[in-house]
Amino acid sequence: MSVERDVMEYDVVVVGAGPSGLSTACRLKQLAEAAGKELSVCVVEKGSEVGAHILSGAVFEPRALNELFPDWKERGAPLNVPVSGDDIYFFRSETAAFKMPHLFVPKTMHNDGNYIISLANLCRWLGQQAEGMGVEIYPGFAAQTAIIEDGVVKGITVGDMGVNREGEHKPDFTPGMELRAKYTVFAEGCRGHIGKQLIAQYALAQDADPQHYAIGIKEIWTVPESQHKPGLVVHGAGWPLDLTGTSALGGSFLYHFENNQVLVGLIVDLSYTNPHLSPFDEFQRFKHHPVIKQYLDGGTRTSYGARAICKGGFNSLPKSVFPGGMLVGCDLGTMNFAKIKGNHTAMKSGMLAAEAIAEALLAGGEGGDTLDSYPAKFKASWLYDELYRSRNFGPLLHKFGALVGGALNYIEQNWFGGKFPFTVHDLKPDHATLKLASASSKITYPKPDGKLSFDKLSSVFLSSTNHEEDQPVHLTLKDADIPIAKNLPMYDEPAQRYCPAGVYEVVDEGSGPRFQINAQNCVHCKTCDIKDPAQNINWVAPEGGGGPNYANM
Amino acid sequence: MKALVSVKRVVDYNVRIQVKSDGSGVVTDGVKHSMNPFDEIAMEEAVRLKEKGKVTEIVAVTIGGAKNEETLRTALAFGADRAIHVKEEGEVQPLTAAKAFAAVLKKEEAKLFLAGKQAIDDDANQTGQMVAALLDIAQATFASKVEIDGDKATVTREIDAGLETLEVDLPAVITTDLRLNEPRYLKLPDIMKAKKKPIEAVSFADLGVTPAAGLKTTKTVPPPARSKGIMVKTTDELVEALKSKGLL
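ok -> structure tokens follow
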């Protein structure tokens, strides 16, 4: 169906108002102002407001922010809780834990000088700074496709509004605009749906290792004051995931934030092998461990959310530029997994992209070219150095497990300064790691007690997720038969368990199993797009404004 | 004919409301806010009346702090021609709001005051009625259909017994119910244009309004948690269970 679309032209269009996209926008305006020139910058964001789709731990390293806004304190950036202590636990069982002596903590895990923050609130603040400099930010508008003409990215098309479930126009149908730009910056976060297409179309990842992912599930708790230790950071490895094995890796976090709030979460590597594993249920039972329970007991859970993260790091970085555009932040994959931090690196990548774009445009460039100065700046920056030093962490864990891999990482980080004279690769993509259901042991998860642990639906309720009901399902299947014909017999359809929001169900009303997609529940974590063994689920953006409404995740 | 539409900034309807631990109110910091949905319906109706040629100018008005500018920008993107921001950082009670709206209505010499029937935060459902009383003009509340013909408005209202149709002389206050219309999607170009439309800032003092504090909130508590249900096997058991709870 062809429709007439309004067109707006900008110098730069940024897709996604997260830390990388907003840093790109702010830096562009700063550089234009310093040169006494104008650059028009537009940011589109699929969340209903800036911050609504932002979820992160988060312990924040202020290095990039110090460069972007040296006066962030005076400007009121929400960095209010300095890290006051770092605990690392190896969880040996559901009751036992071993606290690591500080001496043996890898340098990448030291958090002196860092802050416990709400990334959503930091993004809201960055959005205000950007708007104050004249950036146009449009939340509630989802970029749906890249406009590609003669092999050059010319901007993006915003998703249509008012289309019904069957794909027909409703009376209030409103066609999405074309936002055209000299350069388009994709800052969609991990597994961005346009970024994914661009990586394929321009073969950006052909020289890189496969990207590796994890799903992070997070809750915010308000706890009794006596259990609250502002600034305390607690990281853990092991139970309920593997400590010495390699079939289910990941780690946990628990941060004591402001106002008696505790942020708790579990990160499960999507390289797990048992299709019966449910990251959500692992997280729920994890909270019953005495180390965690001591902080949460008697408290109230106020928020819930989940998001996939890119953890492949250095070895998995695709090429970042293509004609007319570039990838930044987690759309590119700049997280430093050894530090389990990606916010400062995302910001820095956005700033470097902005510097390359500003140089080209302020010198009179017309855009549309492949801006190689961005990867060049990347390579010359601390970002490259940092990611290079951490390149072996993920592969070491995947090969040797949390304990031995972690020990090797300690040796590399603390004795070799992150520079082992060799690189460890991990070439198996996460969707290919599942064993057959018949060859895997079933996992029986304890029933939620309604105090520390909860079921999926009451959890999704706390994410304030909402989608217009009558719209096309945004979790698209390339082949509608695969879930029941292949995934069910082979893997007991793992989507039922890896989805943290109860989107996927296999229901049987007497006439045989049927695959049901409850798209309204989707919290936009992208795990299904990553982990489906048949790579059959394609996540596309729903109507703008839909999805979770996170407050301070 | 000029129409004045009041728009209130409230916690978004998708947000799960949380009560502050000290019971002094609900958590609003860092929580998504948006235009009161009933006011969106009022805004939409004004725009439709303008599209039909019944209204010539739409003025949006809000009362509140600096962040209310967002709400006015939304109104401007809907199609308001200009906006008035009555600046007030503190709590605004229905009577105060009504006095301010009445003053603006008088000053603007608007013939029509459109407002949501209530705001989804305090559910007071008083402001529109009070505006009518203060100015001694007609009111038609809970409108599910509005037609303007010359100096008269015909308003259909949803009442318990069905539909009631009223004819009121203008100027009048009309408050809007859920089924009056379905607000349109805002278009990106309209949002862009809205950024450039004028917003006039005024204070209560400018309007000659003294904030009234007739109401005092003593305590805010969350609703009690739902207790576990029981399964009954027969209707007799059900009747028994209802009786024992005093429900029958």
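The domain at 81-116+213-310+392-463 of chain A is CATH 3.30.9.90 (D-Amino Acid Oxidase; Chain A, domain 2).
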